[in-house]
Design brief:
By secondary structure, the protein is of the alpha/beta class. It has ten helices and eleven strands. The chain is 25% helix and 17% strand. It binds S-adenosylmethionine.
Length: 306
């Protein structure tokens, strides 16, 4: 390996560019290559230097069987070309973002890397809805889980243990909200427990559904809530009623709305993995892939934050 560059696994935070870390903004200004996901706003990408190569590697639902392998390969290839690469990921790179796998792959291939933390949706989505995940009088414990596998045999969560945690924050759970609620109520959590779904936090069209554990699945279905959305379950959700008329945040003062269609840049060709393997590209290892749901949000009428 000669002239190896470096890869920065960078958390982009919840969306708004003002919520990037200073380190993330500095790296965006100087990187040669930006490899980014779907949950990255155009305003964040405008911080990149004009000559930077911007490569979209988002994963439309059901169409990314080899996408993660392609990302791994791309990061190694660009670094070996001597480039400074920013791998930009929504929220924090090490929370349900497959950043750990990307770091492993880079280490296995001798590529120097740095991980830059970001503001995760697990805290910022509740926050944007006026929900403090802990509260002196109401919650001393928080658990952050994925709801992605809550409907199947692959579910590794201990719902009995989780039902005893004061505040439960569920990412990637909006499609399984009925299963999640059932698991928790079957484990003894009261159906009256306040619950909320926060959709598109810090994005234009942010909205919040407030309900109870017993009704949240119906309310989410009725309002057509789609990913990205974060579920919050626990007494702290009721705090929202007190705060919501007064809380304002940066996500509500966008200069202009970003239409969902503009979130995907399909203009950049991506070489499919089988072709790379056929071409005998080095550094391309077989990996165990785990599906991850992420779809383009559909704006709908709910309690929309203005
Ligand atoms: C693959 S996980 C990535 C999480 C990310 N690494 C983080 O730290 O926020 C994607 C999930 O994060 C949550 N999420 C991400 N952005 C969100 C947003 N703007 N509003 C609400 N939830 C969001 C949703 O649950 C979504 O399905």
């Amino acid at each position: 390996m000669t002239n190896a560059g470096k890869v920065y696994l960078v958390g982009a935070g919840p969306g708004h560019p003002d919520l990037l870390t200073i380190r993330a903004a500095e790296l965006l200004k100087t990187a040669d290559v930006i490899v980014y996901d779907r949950l990255i706003q155009d305003e964040v990408l405008t911080l990149c230097k004009p000559t930077a190569e911007k490569i979209f590697m988002g994963k439309p639902l059901g169409k990314h069987a080899s996408r993660q392998d392609e990302i791994h390969y791309l990061l190694v290839r660009k670094a070996r070309e001597g480039k400074t690469v920013v791998r930009l990921k929504g929220g924090d790179p090490f929370l349900f973002g497959r950043g750990g796998e990307e770091a492993e792959y880079l280490a296995e291939h001798g590529i120097p890397f740095e991980v830059v933390p970001g503001v995760s949706s697990c805290l910022s989505a509740p926050l944007s809805a006026g929900i403090a995940v802990t509260h002196r009088d109401r919650a001393s414990s928080v658990a952050i889980v994925t709801g992605h596998n809550a409907d199947g045999n692959d579910d590794r969560l201990d719902w009995c243990a989780l039902s005893k945690v004061d505040t439960l924050v569920v990412l990637m759970g909006v499609h399984n909200v009925a299963h999640i609620a059932q698991h928790l109520m079957a484990a003894g959590r009261s159906a009256d427990t306040p619950a909320a779904a926060v959709q598109r936090a810090f994005w234009p069209g942010e909205s919040v559904i407030s309900a109870t554990l017993g009704t949240i699945a119906d309310e989410v279905r009725r309002a057509h809530v789609e990913a990205p959305a974060t579920l919050v379950i626990g007494e702290v959700v009721s705090l929202r009623q007190k705060l919501k008329g007064y809380q304002q945040h940066i996500g509500q003062i966008f200069p202009q709305a970003v239409a969902p269609a503009t979130l995907v840049d399909t203009s950049i060709p991506v070489v499919p993995l089988p072709e790379l393997i056929a071409a005998g590209e080095p550094g391309l290892d077989a990996l165990n892939l785990e599906e991850e749901i992420c779809v383009i949000p559909i704006p709908c009428e709910k309690e929309t934050l203005q």
